[in-house]
Structures are given as C-alpha cells and as structure tokens.
Amino acid sequence: MKTKYTRCFEKDSGYWIAYVKELPGANAQGRTKKEVQKNLTEAIHLVLEANRELAKKEIKDRKIIIDQQIVAPA
Questions:
Q1: pLDDT digit string (tens) for 22-73?
Q2: 6, 22 contact by CB (below 8 A)
Q3: Considering only CA atoms, which of 13, 68, 69, 22 is closest in space to residue 48?
Q4: How far apart are the first and last CA of the chain?
Q5: Who contacts 2 (Cβ-Cβ below 8 Å, separation ≥6)?
Q6: How far apart are CA 14 and CA 2, in angstroms?
Q7: What is the pLDDT of residue 67?
Q8: What is the pLDDT averaged over residues 2-6?
Q9: By the 8 A CB rule, do 30 and 13 touch?
Q10: How many Å apart are CA 74 and CA 63, to the nearest integer?
C-alpha cells in the first residue's frame, strides 16, 4: 500500500521549489520541475527515515512496548 502526499510546487527566480504539506521538513528545489520532483521524493524518504530512527530511540529510551504496527490508510 502506498501513502499519498500533497506535493506543492512553486517557481521562483528561475528555480522550482517543492514541499509536502503533511510532512514538515520535506522540501526540495531544482532548476526544472522534473529535477525538483526527483529531489522531493528523496527528501520524503530521508525525512521518514530520520523520523523512524528518532521514534526507535525514544521507544528504547522510554522502554515502550510496541503492541502492534499499523499500515496507514491509503
């Protein structure tokens, strides 16, 4: 299952900028729309990976027991 995100694109001074409204920190820029789309996809993966690592550390430090992992609805 894939999660869908709202990608926002703006053109400013000859560059494209992009961000994901639901995922703070997922931002990118590029000279073309294709380049910024590629960069934004990478940014999304990096933000999710970083958040996952932070969550694992918090769980370990607080000795939280994980009962069940869920899959976000599409």
A1: 999 999 999 999 999 999 999 999 999 999 888 888 877 777 666 666 666 6
A2: yes
A3: 22
A4: 7
A5: 74
A6: 32
A7: 63
A8: 83
A9: no
A10: 30
Rounded Cα distance between 7 and 42, Å, is 13
Which ranges in 1-74 belong to alpha helices (H)?
33-62
Helix, strand, coil proportions of the chain in percent (round to 5)? 40, 20, 40
φ/ψ region of 9 (left if φ > 0, alpha if ψ in -120 to 50, else beta) reads beta
For residue 10, pLDDT beyond 60: yes
Q: The pTM is what?
A: 0.76
Task: Quote the tokens at residue 2.
Answer: 């894939």
Question: φ, ψ for residue 31 (rounded to 5)?
Answer: -75, -30
pLDDT band (50, 70, 90) for residue 2: confident
Residue 67 per-residue DSSP state: -
**Length in residues, the chain:** 74
